[in-house]
Fold this sequence. Notes:
Helix content is 78%, strand content 0%. It has helices spanning 4-26, 28-49, 54-78, 80-104, 118-139, 144-148, 151-178, 194-198, 201-220. The mean pLDDT is 83.
Amino acid sequence: MIKKELQKRILSSIILIPVSFFFIIQGSLTFVFFLSLIFLVTSLEWFRMTKNKEILRIFGLFFLFFSFFSTIYLRQYIGLNFFLFLIIICIFTDTGGYIFGKIFKGPRLTKISPKKTYSGVIGSFLSSLIFGLIYIKYFGKKSEIFLEIDPLLIILLIIFVSLVSQIGDLIISYFKRKAKLKDTGKILPGHGGFLDRIDGVIFVMPITYLCILPILINKLDFIK
């Protein structure tokens, strides 16, 4: 019997994922509008988590702004296929960690997030690798980046993005723990707040923008 919380998580995902993909595929001002709404909600959630910590609150707000700017840049100027590749890795990093953690359990990874286990970490890497490579097999031919990159580099890229996503998850969990909050919000049934769901993405996008992208551009002489 599926637990009530898991039922809510599945039902909200059925709605949230298609809606998100619709705006991602639309791009342009539609996508910017969608991200602006999420930015406002996540900013409010961050404010709630950082009461009486003005410097941390301001720093977090600037980080969120830069993260959403990076997200818009990657979608609009680097292209839909590479952007979806990053999103797919983040989704299956989260999903694989959740499923493997529930099934295999085992030792906890850290006190910061009691639900995180070593089996979940392994599941995150395996799931992101499998679905990342499947995505490239069927959609990679549409992107110049994937056509030119060595297969080994692609595998390393997937592992790196998955690692950053998991670290982002732990960082948000740390601040939730400091604020004595179970979730960053209650807007998404079964998921909590938006920061609970996009904690990995908000770190993957700016780090991709700052680190991975310049390497790819240099390697491919790829300028759009």
